[in-house]
Amino acid sequence: MPEMPEVETVRRGLNAQVKGRKITNVEIRYQNLITGDVDQFKEFVTGATITDVGRRAKFLLIHLDNGYTIISHLRMEGRYRISADPSAIDKHSHAIFTLDNGQKMIYNDVRKFGRMQLWNTDDLSANKSIQKLGPEPLSAEFTFSNLKPRIMRHRKDIKTVLLDQSVMSGLGNIYVDEVLWKVKVHPETPANHLTDTDVQNIIEVSNQEMEKAIASGGSTIRSYVDATGHTGNMQNSLQVYGKEGTPCPRCGTDIVKIKVGGRGTHFCPKCQVVK
Fold it and tell me: Could you say which of 21, 42, 250, 263 is catalytic?
């Protein structure tokens, strides 16, 4: 699933290509893609101009000049492509937005898990999906005073807690593994066993990882590409994710992969010990 750096990279690519463009036609080929009334979605979006493409955690926010925003969640394998070439549209193209310059903004999703919803721009904070999101890295709200109570009130393992988007948002399986390795915290450590230093380190390293990942265009592990069709490079800098059986870059002990909360989890059994 694309995480915050990948979605931010998609946002930047889309903004560069579609900001200021008028949507002249909307075709929805997979009705379940739209949360809400499909005909109303098409009616309100057709004729509107894209004023900006924003982001909140893993949600893309396509702002329109008529006071509405398309909230788009890519889920596992959703992707956008901008093209005037008819061959760019295939059986996995589930939403096609024709733009006033002749190009099309095409939403592809092999697994059909992605969703779009039209929402009043001035009332985005009331949207249930947006409303429940916790602070995200690189934001003004991503502070020790905000994060400590959110994290340490839980008795569950820290891996599961950090993946909970209501605690802190934007990080998924890849980057949580990387952050926990860097701060030397075992993924199965109960969240309420962390020290203040652990929490502060998680905050600082999460910010660092997000900055680095965004600069690298995100991580391409399976199928992720940005809005220009390019893959990310952050996977070349990952230290533990997908590295099971290889030496820990810090101590040389083999990286182990286990299941935590049903998610594949990578860590160093020597550097990261359960507290």
Answer: 263
Catalytic residue among 3, 6, 77, 209: 3
Q: Which residue out of 11, 55, 56, 58 is catalytically annotated?
A: 58
Catalytic, 58? Answer yes
What's the rounded Cα separation, in Å, for the pair 28 and 141? 37
Class of domain 4-131: alpha beta
* Domain spans, the chain: 4-131, 144-267
In whole angstroms, how far apart are CA 259 and each of 85, 180, 186?
Answer: 43, 15, 13
CATH number of 144-267: 1.10.8.50
Cβ contact 260:160 at 8 Å: yes
Pick the closest to residue 11 from 79, 88, 68 (CA basis): 79
Q: Tell me which residue has tokens 């009705």.
A: 31
Q: What is the largest CA-CA distance in the chain?
A: 59
pLDDT tens per residue, range 54-101: 999 999 999 999 999 999 999 988 999 999 999 999 999 999 999 999
pLDDT in tens, 109-154: 999 999 999 999 999 999 999 999 999 999 999 999 999 999 999 9
Global pTM reads 0.88
Q: Is 247 tagged catalytic?
A: no
